[in-house]
Amino acid sequence: MPQLPDIESLRLLVLVGERGSLTAAAAELEISQPSASKRLSSLERRLGLKLLERSRRGSTLTPAGTLVCGWAQRILDEVGALLDGVSALRQEQAANLRVAASMTIAEYLLPAWIGDLRRSAPELHVGLQVLNSARVCELARQGVIDIGFVESPRELTGLRSRLIGRDRLVLVVAPGHRWARRRRPVGPAELASTPVISREAGSGTRETAERAVAAAGATMAPPLLELGSSTAIRNAVAAGVGPALISEVAVAAELAAGSLVEVPTEGLDLGRSLRAVWSASTRASGPAAGLLARARRRGGDRGR
What we know:
Layout: H1 7-19, H2 22-29, H3 33-47, E1 52-55, E2 58-61, H4 63-94, E3 97-102, H5 103-108, H6 110-120, E4 126-131, H7 133-142, E5 147-150, E6 159-173, H8 188-192, E7 197-199, H9 204-215, E8 225-227, H10 230-238, E9 244-247, H11 248-257, E10 261-263, E11 271-279, H12 286-299
Parallel strand pairs: 3-4, 3-5, 7-8
Antiparallel strand pairs: 1-2, 5-11, 6-9, 6-10, 6-11
């Protein structure tokens, strides 16, 4: 049975295939050409195959070498994935505070809360994951995170939670949209029949919009476009793609500047609660309690 090849020899072989010569591959790895040739000769002996055609014009892969090169690339890809995963695990284990937050909170509110916390504890390392509200709640139930922040209107079963503030969705369009100058509010039926730019299923923003329309006895049309962040939605609206329901905190600057226009609505409860969540089997303590206190103090301004 052939001996197992070493990773560096496989990497050298793949580079020969990519660069077209042993000399170029050796130069990229910053080793001498004789050293590279010796390494690949050793690999050939281990595998019992001739991998290179050597001539005065240089060294190129044999047909067998080409096949082995392809298999070697797959091994190197897997090794890279292994190293990336180990690095992620090390970072997670080193984190003193594991946090997850829904997109809107992570983009517009959480940075100030974390900054405030780290001023009092500069040695603290915060590991943050930015996910939709459903996924944040799932990680909190599993105890994977110490604390999470969501704007989901759903029942928070299996979790402890604390109100930290309030927010509302606003209907926005580009200045050139047909709704930009209307004075009559958009009602549930009209909104429900109009495809809008939306977040993905599971996001607190989308759930709030769908529940508000459902409470008024209507069902929202399929989204005009699904995007993964408030920033992407805001930019799509500004580009004239269509209307959107989005957190007012995400578009405050654009509304003030006039690059987006808020369209009045009626018969819709578009308010929502911002909540901190954590596993029902634990309590918020240590750095998690510190972050919760700052979120309640600074996030509470959103409810006034």
